[in-house]
Amino acid sequence: MDRGNSTKVDRRGKHLNMDERIILERLLNNGESIKYISSVLGRSERTIRREVLRGTVKRKKSDLSEYTTYCADKGQIIYDERAKKRGKKKVLEKHPEIKPYIAKKIKKEKMAPDIIAYTMESDLGMKVCTKTIYNYIDAKEIPGVHNADLLEKIYRKKRSKKAVLRKDRRCPGRKSIEERSDKINNREEFGHWEIDLVVGKRKGSGAALLTLIERKTRYLIIEKLKDQTQQSVVKALNKIERRLGASNFRKQFKSITADNGSEFLDTASLEKSIYGSEKRTTIFYAHPYASWERGSNENTNKMIRRFIPKGDDIGNYSKKYIKKICEFIANYPRKIIDYLTPREYYEFMLSCGI
Questions:
Q1: Residue 163 lies in a domain
Q2: Could you read off the pLDDT of 131-146 as tens digits, one per residue?
Q3: Is 130 within 8 Å of 113 (Cβ atoms)?
Q4: Are 59 and 66 in contact (CB under 8 A)?
């Protein structure tokens, strides 16, 4: 090879490929030095020496005497064999208990990969990051688990946060979400909730679930409603106030943010206490078609859909089953609150007298 025409192509940080190994073999056979070869291939001398050592083979001359030389094919074969043992397969082969652990957590316990990565450290004594678990599933390394089992991944879509104009159905005197304080918006203060309905099939019984999410702790309350009327929503709030008492309700329900559904339009009845004429809470209303303004509601409703798929008649689900759903979500660790469960965080806030 003409030294004067050689150009250095810097490929440091990348693995040698087959073409480069062939060049390496040819230059070595021509008697070129390691230093010169490293300049031609744009690699360090140490990389070239390691590759020569890896691909060195014994051959025989015509007189049957042996000699050693570098073989590009041998170097590539060894590289490919070692590459197969790297990454996820190496971990899964070394720790076969990982596969059934991930499968059980996703299929039976309905946990997300992020929570599995957190619990695996305490349960199995191993650290595997969330992205690695997603890679296992994408590569079909976990038997029986598919992307369809990961509701977070299915529902994860980019939404345009653009307001859509529609007929204003607001009643005079209603408070807009724009009137909420920064403490509420930034989730700094305990006792501010989001409210929504989870509905079933249109031609079913008409039953629905009223969901209330505390914004700071992500604690969930579910009440089953016989229908989707204003009266049923007010009745459910009355039931909660009766259970807590007037004073505790006002402390724990400082405000509630709703959408513009007709079931939430009776502001006066929603705010009025059953124990007198005093207000028990303040209702704020999000902008039309702005579901991201009640993000906690939206995310929690997706978790409920793991147990009650869209199109099912909610009237067919017992209160006992719905309570189990609520308990599951209340005891589900959340990364956003440092892997505490909503119940733990909620009870901590109550114990602080906030």
A1: no
A2: 889 988 888 889 888 8
A3: yes
A4: yes
